[in-house]
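LAB NOTEBOOK - FOLDING QUEUE
OPERATOR: T.R.
BATCH SIZE: 2
PURPOSE: Compare the predicted structure-token outputs for two unrelated chains run back to back under identical settings.
PRIORITY: normal
REVIEWER: second-year student, initials M.K.

ITEM 1
FIELD SEQUENCE / FIELD STRUCTURE:
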Amino acid sequence: MDRRRTHRARRTFLLSTGAVAAVALLASCSGGSGGSSGSSDKSFTYWSMWQESEAPAKALKQSIAEFEKQTGITVKVQWQGRQVLQKLQPTLNGSPAADLIEQATANVQSIMVPTGTAADLSAVYDQKVTGEDKTVGQVIPEKYQKLGTFGGKVNIIPFTVTNYALWYNAAKTKPSASDLSTWASFLAYLKKQKEAGQTPISLDGDIPTYNQFWYTALVVNKLGPGSFHAAAGDKTGATWDQPGYLEAAQQVEELAKGGYFVDGYDASKFPAGQQKWATNKAQFMLMGSWLPQEVAPYAASGATYAAATFPNNGYSGDKLASADIAGWVVPAKSDHKAAAEKFIEFMYQKDQIENYAKTSQTIVARPDVTMSPVMADPQKILNAATTLYNSTDSVVNDYADWNTKVFQPLNDKLIKGKLTAAQFIAQVKSQSVSYWKRNS
């Protein structure tokens, strides 16, 4: 499989909010931490989220071969693809069919955490990385660790990181650091570009999650991490009355009605929007760090991709960046937990994780390794951030059904100019109240 398909698959895996909402939670909670045969384990079963033909699988196969050579432990790997957790789910309360999987936070938090079917992997952070003086916990920044920790338990050991940022072709578009620093200065820059005949922003408006990036980022960078999440989960709807939510909606309305988006964004089909961006018909895209690889087959000659974190919108707290993680998960009732944990530790050896980063052109959770040059800006953004928030402010993790049924349809109308900001707030509040009455 070529890299374009690999990165499109990664984007689909991380952003398929409907899939999270559609998977029913396991009916009964499983207690206990499950079995483990201890250090005598000679094999374990690993179900990967990748297909065997994909670039990440190539790197993983190399690591598996080296792990088996060094430890004598056999890895029974199956390349299950993106539905790996859905395939594993029916076995989680009994004897899990796999001892190790990779998974994104939203799926683990919505499916495994509430049912107690994800093992607490806290002890892995204390393990020394083979051949090094540091522990696993010392090579993974705490801000990444927090994204995989739920209720004080480490249910995901972060391995890969996706950064969401404003992408542009630095060979054609040359904003200053000041232009990108605040929403007011960024909007002023966009206005100048529009007056000069440029199209400021591209967007594939048929993808609700892409449309949602804008409102979520504006709210969080105005009111702080957790603000959109708080409004989503407020059964009274009162949180939506706070001025910041309307102000963010007004900013989206200004983009939509001010002609800042590329022509046809509200009616075209993916990937028309990103094709226009990649061929210099629009200047910016707010997108995950998979974007440069995904557009590579049709990118304009000489493109030099750069990324900037979303502008501050009035928030006075920590320096923010938007990120999602995917990482290692062990079922609570795994019979070969020790061997699976040994493999996790092994994958953080510098040569192993660096090979993965370069082969897959992915940001990895160990920032001291050399990654693909195209990931340089996202890596700088993540390194500079004090606090990370995920692309939906954890709403998909906890309120996926609300997000799909209430927020996204209304947000689509807002960003396409079919609702005013005031109408949007009124409707999201009233529909949220009705939704929570039906679902509480």
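ITEM 2
FIELD SEQUENCE / FIELD STRUCTURE:
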Amino acid sequence: MLERPNYQIDLDVRQTWHRMSRMYNQKATTYGLSMSVGFILLHIDKDGTPSTQLGPRMGMEPTSLSRTLKTMEEKGFIRREEDKTDKRVVRIFLTETGLDARYVARDVIFDFNKKVESRIPKEHFAIFQSVIQEVQKIVDEELSEPNTEI
């Protein structure tokens, strides 16, 4: 794979993620959801999750997250409550409708993962995980370096 001229790992990662994103959105729309809504549903804890923790957990920008949470609240997937111990914190909870949608999102992701696991040998997947974790470390190192002009 590295033989091709000007190989760029980010191109493969980006193309694969865009295809996966399109696939998840296609499946989600049949249930009246979106991929973003599905992933948010999966990241809300039973005891509620502070809204400020959702963005970093998912890599979403605060404005996108706020807009999506507002839509989710309007559709009855979530409710917001003041934290009992710290009134500055707003916790997000799933409603019954949100819990049902969470199960749908979970099943869609599990089904896709089963298909991947059935087609890729465990040894290959272990290598993939090792490589992607190393790439993530390199990205983290790059992000922690001061911004320099090229």
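REVIEWER COMMENT (ITEM 2): Residues 5 and 11 are 13 Å apart (CA to CA).
FOLLOW-UP: none requested
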